[in-house]
Design goal:
- The structure is a single chain.
- The chain is α/β, with parallel strands linked by helices.
- It is 43% helix and 19% strand.
- The protein has 12 helices and 10 strands.
- It has a 5-stranded mixed sheet, with helices on both faces. Strands 8-7-6-9-10 form a 5-stranded mixed sheet, sandwiched between helices.
- The two termini are 25 Å apart.
- Bound molecules: 5'-O-[(R)-(carboxyoxy)(hydroxy)phosphoryl]adenosine (KG4) and zinc ion.
- The site of 5'-O-[(R)-(carboxyoxy)(hydroxy)phosphoryl]adenosine has 20 residues, from helix 5 and helix 6.
- It holds the Pfam family TsaD.
- Keywords: Acyltransferase, Cytoplasm, Hydrolase, Iron, Metal-binding, Protease, Transferase, tRNA processing.
Length: 358
């Protein structure tokens, strides 16, 4: 029997509700997306050049009920047909997380259905299985506005972090650079668009941590270097901005690729991964908002091909925040009986590795 799950996502500046279906006979996916409603708050935050937590939480409150109604209507099901309700319980902006979490709990309570509190990062980590069949284990580059990590996804709910960012996430670097260049928020898509008109070798920006053999990231130096270059050449012309954008995108791409190559080496040498599993090929997955960037995807795919890793990425609308990924991660948990108590608390910080015992 299939599992039909409602997902709710409110951890940052997207209010989202979606209904997906998981077929337990195909536990590695794909699932079926019955509806996927996303309301972006970009317009209300844009004047501030970033997300304002208090405004985000209030906006989630006013939108979430209608969005859930919409998701149920689009899925063409009754609420009673749901097998479970999943909501993001963290990590994220805690005011927003509480809105979705409370809404999910109340729905579950009133419908007498299981509730699953989902780790937002697990949502990103598993989305690729919603889109196409993909068995564990795989190496994951999770790269978004709040996170930049290389993780070995060894089995469902079993994660080993190889490296994380020491300061800013890659998406944050795009957002801060875009603010500096007056390109608006969110920065990633704006920089990707304008970079097409620029020259990636125009400015020699640093590649922090290059050559240390590790899997950590550091992006704050890049932002500072960009500021210095921009200040040096006032007034900045349109072509300067395009060149800066292209150079920045290239520097971030190079960092992501180099660190991923180090992680591929470690992953392929891990005997707990290679000895125990019947795998036809080592797998590399990129997820999170920055995975919507075509330049970055192309470079990562080339690196994978060179290392004999297969390359997997979800479509762009499932890379940025959405509730289908929360519903899917919830359904994967529901399938193995991992449901959550109704007194589960919202968690502003919640590293993936802490899920290993849950
Ligand atoms: O996963 P996501 O929607 O939210 C978080 O969980 O953080 O990621 C949002 C981030 C933002 O920093 C945004 O600038 C970045 O993803 N992003 C991109 C692109 N689209 C979104 N970065 C680079 N290129 C893009 N096309
Ligand atoms: Zn996210």
């Amino acid at each position: 029997m299939t599992l039909t799950v409602l997902g709710i996502e409110t951890s940052c500046d997207e209010t989202a509700a979606a209904v997906i279906r998981l077929d337990p006979e195909n536990p590695d996916g794909p699932g079926e997306i019955l509806s996927n409603c996303v309301h972006s708050q970009i317009e209300v935050h844009a004047p501030y050049g970033g997300v304002v937590p208090e405004i985000a939480a209030r906006s989630h409150v006013s939108i979430i009920d209608g969005l859930i109604e919409q998701a149920i209507a689009d899925a063409d099901i009754e609420l009673t047909a749901l097998d479970g309700i999943a909501a993001t319980a963290g990590p994220g902006l805690v005011g927003g997380v509480m809105v979705g979490l409370m809404t999910g709990k109340m729905l579950a309570l009133s419908l007498d259905k299981p509730f699953i509190g989902v780790n937002h990062l697990e949502g990103h980590a598993l989305t690729v299985r919603l889109c196409a069949p993909l068995a564990f284990p795989y190496l994951l580059l999770l790269v978004s506005g709040g996170h930049c990590q290389l993780i070995a996804v060894k089995a469902h709910g079993v994660y080993e972090t190889y490296g994380s960012t020491l300061d800013d996430a890659a998406g944050e670097a795009f957002d801060k650079a875009a603010k500096l260049m007056g390109l608006g928020y969110p920065g990633g898509p704006a920089i990707e668009a304008i970079a097409q008109k620029g020259e990636a070798t125009a400015f020699d920006l640093p590649r922090p941590l290059r050559g240390d053999g590790g899997c950590d990231f550091s992006f704050s130096g890049l932002k500072t270097a960009l500021r210095v270059r921009a200040t040096d050449m006032q007034p900045v012309s349109d072509i300067d901005v395009a060149n800066l954008a292209a150079s920045l995108q290239q520097a971030i791409t190079d960092c992501l690729v180099e660190r991923s190559l180090n992680a591929m080496q470690r992953f392929s040498e891990d005997e707990t991964i290679t000895a125990k599993n019947d795998y036809s090929m080592l797998k590399f997955v990129v997820a999170g908002g920055v995975a919507a960037n075509t330049h970055i995807k192309t470079a990562l795919e080339q690196a994978c091909t060179a290392q004999d890793f297969s390359f997997h990425v979800a479509p762009p609308q499932l890379c940025t925040d959405n509730a289908a990924m929360i519903a899917w991660a919830g359904a994967e948990r529901l399938r193995v009986g991992k449901i959550s108590p109704l007194d589960m608390a919202a968690r502003p910080r919640w590293p993936l590795m802490e899920l290993n015992s849950l």
